[in-house]
Amino acid sequence: MTLVLFVSCKFGENKKNGNNTDESFTIPQELRTIQGTVLGERKKKIAFAAVKLYLDDGDCMSAYTDDNGFFEFKVDELRIKDQSHFEIVYKGYAEHLLSIRNHDNSKPIILSKKGKVIPAADYHVFYESIKSCNN
Average model confidence (pLDDT) for the chain? Predict the structure, then answer.
């Protein structure tokens, strides 16, 4: 029992002094903040729009706009690829696809009613399905 106590105290002391003997450590990642505001007709802010960020095949992140139509992602730069893009869905508007390369954080994303408009049921399915994306 004394040996266990001594070893655990010694390990805790090494951690305090920065001498962590654990070989696994994390390298700081460069995070990029990607944000935007989603607007609809007459530049009205859209709350609860579902935003899916496709980073690569099988790698995605999800967000939902707040009451001001605002969303934000913090993404490791290494996960962003040339084909990375957004898919933004809200009921009563057409699906909006946008490449990260063409996205400017300071400019709003404006949804349109031109094209195939998303019915409420499809919006709810998409809204729920993107929760499974890795964040």
Answer: 84
**Rounded-to-integer distance, Cα 73 and Cα 96, Å:** 17
Q: Which fold does the domain 31-132 belong to in CATH?
A: Immunoglobulin-like (2.60.40)
Query: CB–CB of 38/46 below 8 Å?
Result: yes
Mean pLDDT of 16-22: 51
Written in H, E and C, the secondary structure of the chain is CHHHHHHHHHHHHHHHCCCCCCCCCCCCCCEEEEEEEEECHHHCECCCCEEEEEEECCEEEEEECCCCCEEEEEEEHHHCCCCCEEEEECCCCECEEEEHHHCCCCCCEECCCCCCECCHHHHHHHHHHHHHCCC
Q: Phi/psi at 28 (nearest 5 deg)?
A: -60, 135
Strands 85-89 and 50-56: antiparallel
